[in-house]
Specification:
Layout: H1 2-9, H2 26-159, H3 162-183
């Protein structure tokens, strides 16, 4: 440990140039070794390092150029997509407007058709009611006529005897004969 502390104390002490030997001063020898290594690296590695940096620079520039080209293509595609979107939106608006007007037109046609159908059904209903009323009236007339005829026959059969029957027939024949003479 004493050697380490001594080396710190004697930093300013350099061995004389005439002597050759081991330098036990660690810091001084490290600085010399480091400066020699750095000097050799700079002298010999300058070209390699320069080539590496140039290659890296070229790759970065190529990447930037490629990125710019891709960005330009992406902007171009974006503009095309926006144009296509505007066109599709206009077509959609047109379809929507046409669709709404078509829906309104169909709705009005359906309403008109429904009104016509209802009107026809009302007419058919009224005609059916009128027909049924006429049929019912005719049936009632027939029944009344049949009942009146049956009543008249019953009355005639009960009131008529053979003599009255013959007189009625003779009177009717006489009336037909008089009518015949008038028409000639």
């Amino acid at each position: 440990m004493k050697n380490v502390t001594d080396s710190f104390v004697f930093l300013g002490h350099w061995p004389s140039a005439g002597s050759f030997g081991f330098n036990t001063d660690i810091l001084a020898t490290n600085l010399i070794n480091l400066s020699v290594v750095i000097g050799v690296l700079i002298f010999f590695g300058k070209g390699v390092l320069s080539d590496l940096l140039d290659n890296r620079k070229q790759r970065i520039l190529n990447t930037i150029r490629n990125s710019e080209e891709l960005r330009g293509k992406a902007i171009e595609q974006l503009e095309k997509a926006r144009t296509r979107l505007r066109k599709v939106e206009k077509e959609a608006d047109q379809f929507r407007v046409n669709g709404y007007s078509e829906i309104e037109r169909e709705k009005m046609n359906l309403i008109n058709s429904t009104y016509k159908t209802l009107e026809q059904l009302e007419n058919y209903k009224n005609e059916s009611i009128h027909f049924e009323q006429q049929r019912a009236i005719n049936q009632v007339r027939q029944r009344v006529f049949q009942q009146a005829l049956q009543g008249a026959l019953v009355t005639l059969n009960s009131c008529l005897n053979n003599e009255l029957h013959l007189r009625t027939i003779n009177a009717n024949i006489g009336m037909f004969g008089a009518m015949k003479e008038i028409t000639h």
